[in-house]
Amino acid sequence: MVLPAEFSLIARHFRPLAGPGALDLRDDAALLTPPAGRELVLTADAMVAGVHFLADDPADLIGRKLLRVNLSDLAAKGAVPLSYLMTVSTPKNTPETWFAGFAAGLATDQARFGVTLLGGDTTSTPGPISLSLTIIGHVAPGTAIQRLGAQAGDEIWVTGTIGDGVLGLAAAHGRLADPTGYLLDRYRLPQPRVGLQLAGIASAGIDVSDGLVQDLGHLCRANGLAAEIIADRVPLSDAARAAGPDWREACLTGGDDYELLLAVPPARSDALGTAARYAGIPVTRIGRFHSGPAKVMVRQASGEALALTKGGWSHF
Amino acid sequence: MVLPAEFSLIARHFRPLAGPGALDLRDDAALLTPPAGRELVLTADAMVAGVHFLADDPADLIGRKLLRVNLSDLAAKGAVPLSYLMTVSTPKNTPETWFAGFAAGLATDQARFGVTLLGGDTTSTPGPISLSLTIIGHVAPGTAIQRLGAQAGDEIWVTGTIGDGVLGLAAAHGRLADPTGYLLDRYRLPQPRVGLQLAGIASAGIDVSDGLVQDLGHLCRANGLAAEIIADRVPLSDAARAAGPDWREACLTGGDDYELLLAVPPARSDALGTAARYAGIPVTRIGRFHSGPAKVMVRQASGEALALTKGGWSHF
Question: Which of A168, B137, B247, B300 has the fewest Cβ atoms within 10 angstroms?
């Protein structure tokens, strides 16, 4: 019997990604024996061409970004990644080289982050490429970091550098020079902070996907706290500094950083430093939570409040 | 702080659907304590407007179909549904009434099938509405029905009636009269056969989503067996019979039935009958598996082979 094109496409490109329980992607469902004595952590994200990535982005980077934005959500929980399911809707004229590149990108990051494909669905679409990925990780029961849990007095820390994602998008659109390509790389290929020990250290956390100020606002609302951060302490990459002061607000409010934003009690900041060195992930203290009402204050080093014209990114 | 529109939309329409572990959809990930001593069964399906449903289908029926096509995959495994994650990508001008209707449909079927929302993502899209759903169910370890497992001599059984889905789509496009609306209803709202006891009864199984002949072909390939079915034994609804003999082939090869197609050893057909009566789900024996090579033969009652012009549905 001749296999229909859909199934041979799956066999050629996606079957090599399949891991334990995936039944070689020859079935309609996957089987998963949950790791004994662990709590599962699950999250799903969608990515649409023209919204979350550029239609002409290299297919391997699209695959890696799809996996990495979900890995970033697991990282914010302090979870160990396990496996994922994925749906891929593509226009009928999508060339086979696109699928080959997309799968090659996933294979690279599967090896890097220790996850395997469990299942999914491929369909056609009359619109742009639309992707979704559901990832499964695990934690010791009761230890997942959540948005809820920060206390007044907790310090505010971030990993890595902030703002490269939004500047990379501006560079892609020709609105900003990016001579080294560093910013565009950061937009296209986030670095999920998987492996940073957070249990017993952070009181709350979130990954910065909608913009530092907006995501900090999520922590404020969840905990009924005010947050005060010092703009000059927000870590910027050399490339972001080179963009100059006109782009400073964009760095604070733009999306796509996929760094971690953490609430850490002062008594545990040393432990965070140790965990960060162990994981090889830079961390920077940028402010502190205070009693509510929920509000984000961004101050200059002088203490003067900075008025932001844009709070962050919403899809509607 | 004023919530961005995306988050208030989630709060109004999707938060009421959230179940245990969903953290009220206020977080980026969900927590799931797997049922003790059970194996998880996971599957994901995507649905795109204009491909899997009609753009002007009532929003509540779109939500219910999205959930039900995934429930159908769980039903084919003999799994108990537990919870689901969902991604929803909609054009920017999608009215709030659409979200309200979509969520109301999900609420109806959550109650009916005993599942709750665990998490997901909402985004905008410049294309048609694109949905994906990942569902999680569970079975006693080692008892999930798979495509693999059928033996020569096993009987071929189906639940319900076959072909209503494809005829309903033809009716929606004005190519077929549907005076009672029965066929269109069957296309829009599949009946996942959740609750039919299959463990210890079926040796293999699949749900009929791509068309009876094509899905039977999947079972043949998985097991290296030939399948022989008698066209006249394939159960048709009154409405499908009324469509006349010109539509008979469409019934055998069209998609969207979401009935179960099962391999059952003859010694267990009585047990299947008992399980079917208990669940209130009609089952019909339509043929038998033979030694390979993998092939689907459709015969008339006279024994003459029926030549089909179309094997089933592929998205590529």
Answer: B300
